[in-house]
Amino acid sequence: MTLCWQYNPKLRPTFLHLVELLEKDVSDAYKKRSYYHSLTSDQLNDLAQAQTKGHHKSRHKAETVESQA
Asked: 67 falls in which pLDDT band (50, 70, 90)?
């Protein structure tokens, strides 16, 4: 949990990294219901990349709007 408190956001773990860290402690019942376990690793990577690109695009839009104000 303390990894998530890093001042610099780039040093904070990704959601997928956190899932990997916590995965060993989850029950089999959770694994059967979790979307994380229902997607292939390629699908998960694509999803993570899409979310990252979307985050960067929305942040860039906000920065552009602020600089125009």
From this structure: low
